[in-house]
Amino acid sequence: MITTARVRLAQELHDGIAQDLVALGYAVDAILATEDDEIKRHSLRSLRLDIVSLIDKVRIEIFDLRKENGFAEPINSQPAFKVELSKTFNEIIENAIQHSQASNLTITIADDGIGGAKYSELHHGLQGCGERISSLQGDFAVKSDFTGTTIEIKVPLESQ
Questions:
Q1: Could you list the residue range(s) of the whole structural domain that residue 116 is in?
Q2: Alpha-carbon torsion, ordered 109, 115, 120, 123, to 10 deg
Q3: Which terminal Cβ of the chain has fewer Cβ within 10 Å, N or C?
Q4: pTM of the predicted protein model
């Protein structure tokens, strides 16, 4: 699948502005639930309807941007590859935290390379990853052999 600049923009709108507007709407709902003054409630309801309208407009833009347009600008550079994966993982993790009602999150990343990933005094990448996960009261495990490397991360969600 070729990712175009239009699709990237649609992704950014979804992960950024659209999510922010939804959160703003929830915040207005929370305020509305505690407000007794009818004039303020009317203003808050009006604001909430405006937010819903903006969300709808952004969604329409997202769908329009994702329509086929015949122009393909592939993402094939290594930095763009990493950025797109990072944004994808962030969205998946955010959805799990916000919506899953789960008590733990387990992430497994596996490759089919030559293996060899291990903790080393000369390289601190895996060590740093393990320390970060440990600071979240999680577990970080690395299995690496000639069939590839598998990294499993398990973190509790209750404290997040």
A1: 103-160
A2: -70
A3: N
A4: 0.53
